[in-house]
Amino acid sequence: MRATSTPETTDIDREPSESGTIDEAKVPKGGWRERMRSNPVTRLPYRITVFIVGLLCILAGVALAVLPGPLTIPPVLLGLWIWSWEFRFAQKFFESFRKKAHDAWVKAKRRPVTSALITVFGLAVAGAAMWVVVHYDLVAKAKEAVGL
């Protein structure tokens, strides 16, 4: 096990263990999450709670992908963010999303008019698609065609 620390964070990077435990994410030093981890009574219930809440958010995002309606990605990202509090794999994965979002923001700020037009056009297309689905009752027709 290799442990390093800085004034801002406690970095516990563990090599994959024989027991198959999941690596811990970095946490702010002196914060409530570090206190939860350091207490043997609260450590396991905290990790289980973080896992279950994150999993429920991700499952809600997957359910929204199947059900009609928007907002599939935000619950998945929320679940991943919750997992990143405690699990190193999720923290690394979430950091890649954060970097891509930052890069997209920088690019959008360089060309604000183009970015605004693309955003407005995308929202208009999404609104038109939702109107068509509701107006022509496509969900009921799809269920009928499948036999549900």
Summarize the structure.
The protein has 148 residues and is mainly alpha-helical.
Number of strands: 3
Number of helical regions:
6
Along the chain, the helix and strand elements come as EEEHHHHHH
Q: What gross morphology would you assign? A: flat
The end-to-end distance, rounded to whole angstroms, is: 54 Å
The biggest sheet, with number of strands, parallel, antiparallel or mixed sense and barrel status, is: 3 strands, antiparallel
Q: Give the strand content.
A: 5-15%
Structural class: mainly alpha
- Low-pLDDT segments: 1-7, 9-20
How are the strands ordered across the major sheet?
Answer: 1-2-3
Write down the overall mean pLDDT.
Answer: 82
Q: Helical percent range?
A: 55-70%
Defining key terms:
148 residues, mainly alpha, 7% strand, three-stranded antiparallel β-sheet, 2 domains, single chain
Describe this structure in words.
- This protein starts with a strand and ends with a helix.
- The radius of gyration is 21 Å and the shape is flat.
- It is mostly helical and 148 residues long.
- The protein is built from six helices and three strands, in the order βββαααααα.
- The chain has two domains: 2-110, no CATH class; 111-148.
- Residues 1-7 and 9-20 have low confidence and may be disordered.
